[in-house]
Amino acid sequence: MKLNELADKPGARKGRTRIGRGIGSGKGKTGGRGVKGQKSRSGVSIKGFEGGQMPIYRRLPKRGFNKHNPAEFAEVNLGRLQEAIDAKKIDASKPIDAAVLKEAGVVRRIKDGIRLLGKGELKAKVTITVAGASKTAVAAVEKAGGKIDVVAPKTGSDEAKA
What we know:
two-stranded parallel sheet; single chain; alpha/beta; 5 helices; CATH 3.100.10.10; 162 residues
Protein backbone atom coordinates (compact mmCIF):
# COMPACT_ATOMS: atom_id res chain seq x y z
CA MET A 1 0.00 0.00 0.00
CA LYS A 2 1.24 3.47 -0.89
CA LEU A 3 0.18 6.84 0.46
CA ASN A 4 -1.03 7.97 -2.95
CA GLU A 5 -3.31 4.92 -3.15
CA LEU A 6 -5.22 5.73 0.05
CA ALA A 7 -8.86 6.59 -0.57
CA ASP A 8 -12.21 6.56 1.19
CA LYS A 9 -14.62 3.73 0.64
CA PRO A 10 -17.27 4.53 -1.95
CA GLY A 11 -20.14 6.46 -0.34
CA ALA A 12 -18.07 7.56 2.70
CA ARG A 13 -18.16 11.20 1.65
CA LYS A 14 -21.37 12.87 0.63
CA GLY A 15 -21.36 15.66 -1.97
CA ARG A 16 -22.75 19.07 -1.07
CA THR A 17 -26.43 19.73 -1.71
CA ARG A 18 -26.97 22.14 -4.60
CA ILE A 19 -29.87 24.30 -3.52
CA GLY A 20 -32.12 26.51 -5.62
CA ARG A 21 -31.92 24.30 -8.73
CA GLY A 22 -35.59 23.75 -9.43
CA ILE A 23 -38.53 22.17 -7.59
CA GLY A 24 -37.62 18.65 -8.72
CA SER A 25 -34.34 18.74 -6.76
CA GLY A 26 -36.22 18.92 -3.47
CA LYS A 27 -34.28 22.05 -2.48
CA GLY A 28 -35.64 24.42 -5.11
CA LYS A 29 -38.05 27.37 -4.99
CA THR A 30 -37.30 28.73 -1.47
CA GLY A 31 -33.88 27.02 -1.25
CA GLY A 32 -34.38 25.78 2.31
CA ARG A 33 -34.96 29.31 3.64
CA GLY A 34 -38.67 29.02 4.41
CA VAL A 35 -40.96 31.49 2.66
CA LYS A 36 -40.80 35.03 1.34
CA GLY A 37 -39.56 38.17 3.00
CA GLN A 38 -36.41 39.73 4.37
CA LYS A 39 -35.16 36.59 6.09
CA SER A 40 -35.24 34.61 2.86
CA ARG A 41 -32.72 37.00 1.27
CA SER A 42 -29.01 37.48 1.87
CA GLY A 43 -27.66 40.35 3.98
CA VAL A 44 -30.38 40.19 6.64
CA SER A 45 -29.79 42.73 9.42
CA ILE A 46 -32.67 41.95 11.73
CA LYS A 47 -30.84 40.57 14.81
CA GLY A 48 -31.50 43.50 17.18
CA PHE A 49 -34.91 44.40 15.74
CA GLU A 50 -37.80 44.19 18.20
CA GLY A 51 -40.77 44.92 15.94
CA GLY A 52 -40.60 48.69 16.22
CA GLN A 53 -40.36 48.65 20.03
CA MET A 54 -37.41 50.63 21.40
CA PRO A 55 -34.54 48.09 21.30
CA ILE A 56 -32.85 47.03 24.52
CA TYR A 57 -29.52 48.57 23.58
CA ARG A 58 -31.28 51.95 23.41
CA ARG A 59 -33.54 51.43 26.45
CA LEU A 60 -30.62 50.77 28.80
CA PRO A 61 -28.34 53.64 29.87
CA LYS A 62 -24.75 53.88 28.76
CA ARG A 63 -22.18 54.05 31.55
CA GLY A 64 -18.50 54.78 31.77
CA PHE A 65 -15.81 55.63 29.29
CA ASN A 66 -13.31 53.46 27.44
CA LYS A 67 -10.07 55.22 26.63
CA HIS A 68 -9.23 54.63 22.97
CA ASN A 69 -5.45 54.72 23.51
CA PRO A 70 -4.74 53.34 26.99
CA ALA A 71 -1.14 52.97 28.16
CA GLU A 72 -0.02 49.37 27.81
CA PHE A 73 2.71 48.12 30.11
CA ALA A 74 5.01 45.12 29.96
CA GLU A 75 4.43 43.39 33.29
CA VAL A 76 7.25 41.85 35.32
CA ASN A 77 6.76 39.93 38.55
CA LEU A 78 9.35 40.02 41.34
CA GLY A 79 9.83 36.25 41.10
CA ARG A 80 10.78 36.55 37.40
CA LEU A 81 13.23 39.34 38.23
CA GLN A 82 14.84 37.20 40.96
CA GLU A 83 15.16 34.25 38.51
CA ALA A 84 17.06 36.48 36.06
CA ILE A 85 19.36 37.69 38.85
CA ASP A 86 20.00 34.10 40.02
CA ALA A 87 20.79 33.04 36.43
CA LYS A 88 23.35 35.91 36.22
CA LYS A 89 21.43 37.54 33.35
CA ILE A 90 21.04 40.72 35.41
CA ASP A 91 23.68 42.27 37.69
CA ALA A 92 21.85 43.26 40.89
CA SER A 93 24.59 45.72 41.93
CA LYS A 94 23.96 47.93 38.87
CA PRO A 95 20.78 49.99 38.30
CA ILE A 96 18.05 48.09 36.45
CA ASP A 97 15.82 49.74 33.87
CA ALA A 98 13.66 48.71 30.89
CA ALA A 99 16.64 48.34 28.53
CA VAL A 100 18.44 45.99 30.95
CA LEU A 101 15.29 43.87 31.39
CA LYS A 102 14.81 43.58 27.62
CA GLU A 103 18.47 42.68 27.04
CA ALA A 104 18.26 39.97 29.72
CA GLY A 105 15.14 38.51 28.05
CA VAL A 106 12.85 39.20 31.02
CA VAL A 107 10.48 41.16 28.77
CA ARG A 108 10.02 40.82 25.03
CA ARG A 109 8.76 44.34 24.32
CA ILE A 110 8.97 47.44 26.50
CA LYS A 111 5.66 48.87 25.15
CA ASP A 112 4.80 52.07 27.13
CA GLY A 113 7.06 51.07 30.01
CA ILE A 114 7.58 48.34 32.58
CA ARG A 115 5.15 47.71 35.44
CA LEU A 116 6.53 45.80 38.40
CA LEU A 117 4.12 43.43 40.14
CA GLY A 118 4.49 41.78 43.54
CA LYS A 119 4.10 38.06 42.74
CA GLY A 120 7.06 35.99 43.88
CA GLU A 121 9.90 36.77 46.27
CA LEU A 122 12.82 39.17 45.81
CA LYS A 123 15.97 38.47 47.87
CA ALA A 124 18.49 40.68 46.05
CA LYS A 125 19.08 44.33 46.86
CA VAL A 126 18.27 46.15 43.63
CA THR A 127 17.85 49.68 42.33
CA ILE A 128 15.16 49.58 39.66
CA THR A 129 13.56 52.24 37.47
CA VAL A 130 10.08 51.41 36.13
CA ALA A 131 7.02 53.22 34.74
CA GLY A 132 4.72 51.73 37.37
CA ALA A 133 4.72 49.42 40.37
CA SER A 134 2.12 47.85 42.64
CA LYS A 135 2.14 48.62 46.36
CA THR A 136 3.17 45.05 47.18
CA ALA A 137 6.08 45.26 44.72
CA VAL A 138 7.33 48.55 46.22
CA ALA A 139 7.07 47.09 49.73
CA ALA A 140 8.95 43.91 48.74
CA VAL A 141 11.81 45.82 47.03
CA GLU A 142 12.22 48.13 50.03
CA LYS A 143 12.06 45.16 52.43
CA ALA A 144 14.94 43.52 50.52
CA GLY A 145 16.95 46.74 51.02
CA GLY A 146 16.51 48.00 47.47
CA LYS A 147 15.23 51.20 45.96
CA ILE A 148 12.51 51.71 43.35
CA ASP A 149 12.09 54.78 41.12
CA VAL A 150 8.72 55.21 39.41
CA VAL A 151 8.99 57.48 36.37
CA ALA A 152 6.08 58.72 34.25
CA PRO A 153 5.33 56.29 31.40
CA LYS A 154 5.94 57.45 27.84
CA THR A 155 2.75 57.96 25.84
CA GLY A 156 1.96 58.64 22.22
CA SER A 157 1.22 62.32 22.95
CA ASP A 158 4.66 62.77 24.61
CA GLU A 159 6.42 61.48 21.50
CA ALA A 160 4.43 63.86 19.29
CA LYS A 161 5.61 66.88 21.36
CA ALA A 162 9.29 65.91 21.18
